[in-house]
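Subject: Re: docking follow-up (pyridoxal-5'-phosphate)

Dear J.,

Thanks for your patience while I sorted out the input files. As discussed at Tuesday's group meeting, I've set up the holo structure prediction with pyridoxal-5'-phosphate included as the bound ligand rather than trying to dock it afterwards. The sequence and the ligand SMILES I used are pasted below, so you can double-check that they match what you have on your end before we go further.
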Amino acid sequence: MSIYLDHNATTPVDGRVLEAMLPYLQDCYGNPSSGHRPGRESQRALQRAREQVAMLVGVQPSQVVFTSGGTEANNLALKGVMALADAGSGLVVSAVEHSSVLQSAYALELTGYELAVADVDDRGVVKAAMFEQALNEGKTSLASVMLANNETGVVQEIARLSEVARSHGVVMHTDAVQALGKMPVDFETLGVAAMSISAHKIYGPKGIGALVMDKGLALQPMLHGGGHEAGLRAGTENLPGIVGFGAAAEILQTELSLRIDHCGQLRRHAEQALQKIPEVVIFSQQAKRLPNTIFFAVQGIEGATLLMSLDRDGIAVSSGSACASGSGEPSHVLQAMGVEEGLAHGAVRVSFGSGNTVEEVDLLISSLQRQIESLLKLNSVWA
Ligand SMILES: Cc1ncc(COP(=O)(O)O)c(C=O)c1O
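The structure tokens for the complex came back this morning:
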């Protein structure tokens, strides 16, 4: 069994969530759209899960549109809003967005929409003045800035940016996929028009997420078919996934502060030890961050090499965002922060979860110390 320290990539399914899902994989298989009793039973389960997710983020159930995950929710928000925007209008995204936002934005740019990318400072925080300037250029219809970054854990000032967007008549979307489960996420407080979330980051199943939206927001669906999800996302609902998402959301409501405290304690413990290793540079320490995330680099060692060495010791970490791992390119987030390329190549992300212990953090640190020492020795032999 590995010591799993990669909870920003995904989390294990909570046993209570699995239990809630099992009947919908076997006994309760009715199609929620069917008028008979099994169908009605499934429809009730669908409605209950919608209520559970809505309650977690402080909205009405009708504001929750279930999707296949955060990626689809981000695609739906960006492409759905822009499809109804005037020709020649534009959108603004931050430089540190998840690839599902960035690639959607690039795809829209290819079809003729103007795209502006708002810069971040050296901590990874979006520059509010640059954001406003970008909104002012051209005829902006939509802005998308993530609530918390998956690599650095940096939390953006979304309420403030939303206010700016609103004052310019711009629809504001936030990708809250990483933030959910690690900090309070309240739709109204954020002041956004749309927000993406995903179950597998909160101990729910993979392949299910939601776009939470203002009641009046006009959106063109990406998938056409039956009238599922108020006509915004056609396709027979992934009921076991949706039920799991609902259960995970309900559990999170009662356990959020415990999780925040627990992860915060582990991170403090880990960072105190990491700071004593001279070659280690911790990114974004001066910014507001998610309590469970440490993004750091070791001078002179490739992140991918360190990841493999730790893996041999049975410790699972990430060398950047899960999707970017293996591409060989340094993290676009670190590039946007102006981190020197050599150092950016050394980036490693540790993300704690509720099942981790102080003993596991100690094992991580001792393994790191050992690996760093031997890799640096190896480097000096080859130099
Ligand atoms: C910030 C962010 N947005 C979106 C996604 C995509 O979510 P999903 O895996 O549910 O498609 C991720 C997943 O890593 C993420 O970290």
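A couple of observations from a first look. The first strand starts at residue 3 and ends at 4. The domain at 3-10+256-376 is CATH 3.90.1150.10 (Aspartate Aminotransferase, domain 1).

Let me know if you'd like me to rerun anything.

Best regards,
T.
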